[in-house]
Write a structure and sequence with these properties.
This protein is an all-alpha fold. The C terminus is likely disordered.
Length: 182
């Protein structure tokens, strides 16, 4: 069994075997949550000065609630609406794999660097989406990537709605939503 750091590196490297490992390891759910928290903290540190004092707290809450919501929608769509014949997954498997797909988000800690920080943040966000596709493909046992992309896009739209809702409810809309883009 790989260590926590090895799993994070493997997930960031888009290693399918790493995603299979965390999918199968029921004890890795808390590790997956830790990756989501670390990624959100990196974004908060990188976004210092952009989101005000409430930004980091709301960003963390948004990341955790959004992660769960995105995993749930992904599980629902991927297993009930557009599964492949061999698709068999539970919510825990999606939580674990999608949580680890946030590993590239640790690079968002460099968001405070003028000009370069924005480029790194955008690259990290795109990398996280690609990681999410690999995570979903592996967790749902899809043979190809196209269906995984569709499921991730549907889940992403729901994720954005959840995070925006949290930001609006707590009155930090611009800062929290802006930190998502970084």
């Amino acid at each position: 069994m790989a260590t926590f750091v090895q799993r994070m590196i493997g997930a960031a490297r888009l290693d399918a075997a790493t995603y299979e490992d965390v999918e199968a390891d029921r004890s890795a759910t808390m590790q997956a949550m830790a990756v989501v928290i670390l990624s959100a903290l990196a974004a908060a540190i990188g976004g210092i000065g952009h989101a005000g004092m409430r930004g980091p707290v709301l960003g963390l809450v948004g990341a955790l609630v959004g992660w769960y919501a995105w995993a749930f929608v992904t599980w629902l769509v991927g297993t009930k609406i557009i599964p492949e014949p061999q698709t068999e997954a539970d919510l825990g498997q999606l939580l674990r794999t999608t949580g680890f797909s946030a590993a590239p988000g640790l690079l968002r800690i460099f968001g405070f660097i003028p000009v370069l920080g924005g480029i790194i943040g955008s690259a990290a966000a795109l990398w996280m989406l690609v990681s999410m596709v690999v995570a979903v493909r592996q967790a749902l046992d899809y043979r190809g990537t196209g269906r995984a992309v569709a499921v991730v896009v549907i889940g992403f739209l729901f994720y954005i709605a959840v995070v925006a809702g949290i930001a609006i409810i707590f009155g930090a809309g611009a800062g929290v939503i802006g930190s998502l883009a970084r």
